[in-house]
Write a structure and sequence with these properties.
Strand content of chain B: over 45%
Structural class of chain B: mainly beta
Largest interface: A-B, 22 and 22 residues
Number of helices of chain A: 0
Number of helices of chain B: 0
Mean pLDDT of chain A: 92
Low-confidence stretches of chain B: none
Helix content of chain B: under 10%
Order of helices and strands of chain A: EEEEEEEEEEE
Structural class of chain A: mainly beta
Radius of gyration of chain A: 13 Å
Distance between the termini of chain A: 37 Å
Distance between the termini of chain B: 34 Å
Strand content of chain A: over 45%
Oligomer: heterodimer
Low-confidence stretches of chain A: none
Chain lengths: ~110, ~110
């Protein structure tokens, strides 16, 4: 079993929909949680970064961490075709120095 | 200005060959990484260097050898290429190993025939 699980999708939604992307993890030591967006044939780019439990909002994006359930989410409001990409969650714990990634969820937003 | 650049972008080669991938960052970061992304998009760290010193060395065949001539460069040399080495290899850099500062390069697509 992988340390970080993520549904590979694809997840297809119409433009304007609210998108929910999720990851579960098994290592309770993880403290820092990241979401990356990866367009086809490009490198991952950091979208959101959160520490510990709670919510963090940045424009149309909201990252949510529930450490008690070992579950993190990324919500995208008013989704756009330009949001079509693979979304990777990643996490790390203090002193470990390496990011552990989920397998990524492919999102398709149709006009 | 490209922050993290990799050369070449594409590499097609025969089994058994030796090849190198180069990475350069102009962000002034002190930590650099090599990741491998397989056909299912799973991204896994291979190596990490901080100030030219190897700090992460995952379970990677010793056919893979990283070299960091200075803080701004991290190269990856692969000996005796195998079919299973086909993947996209990403270089990344960060400041002080802080994950929120990690910036990825565009990737090198390696295809071993």
């Amino acid at each position: 079993q992988k340390e970080v699980e993520q549904d590979p999708g694809p997840l297809s939604v119409p433009e304007g929909a609210i998108v929910s992307l999720n990851c579960t993890y098994s290592n309770s030591a993880f403290q820092y949680f990241m979401w990356y967006r990866q367009y086809s044939r490009k490198g991952p780019e950091l979208l959101m970064y959160t520490y510990s439990s709670g919510n963090k909002e940045d424009g149309r994006f909201t990252a949510q961490v529930d450490k008690s359930s070992k579950y993190i989410s990324l919500f995208i409001r008013d989704s756009q075709p330009s949001d079509s990409a693979t979304y990777l969650c990643a996490m790390i714990y203090t002193g470990f120095q390496k990011l552990v990634f989920g397998t990524g969820t492919r999102l398709l937003v149709s006009p | 200005d490209t922050a993290v650049s990799q050369t070449p972008k594409y590499l097609v080669t025969q089994m058994g060959n030796d090849k190198s991938i180069k990475c350069e960052q102009n962000l002034g970061h002190d930590t650099m990484y090599w990741y491998k992304q397989d056909s299912k998009k799973f991204l896994k760290i291979m190596f990490s260097y901080n100030n030219k010193e190897l700090i992460i060395n995952e379970t990677v065949p010793n056919r893979f050898s990283p070299k960091s001539p200075d803080k701004a460069h991290l190269n990856l040399h692969i000996n005796s290429l195998e079919l299973g080495d086909s993947a996209v290899y990403f270089c990344a850099s960060s400041q002080d190993s802080r994950p929120e500062t990690q910036y990825f390069g565009p990737g090198t697509r390696l295809l071993v025939l």
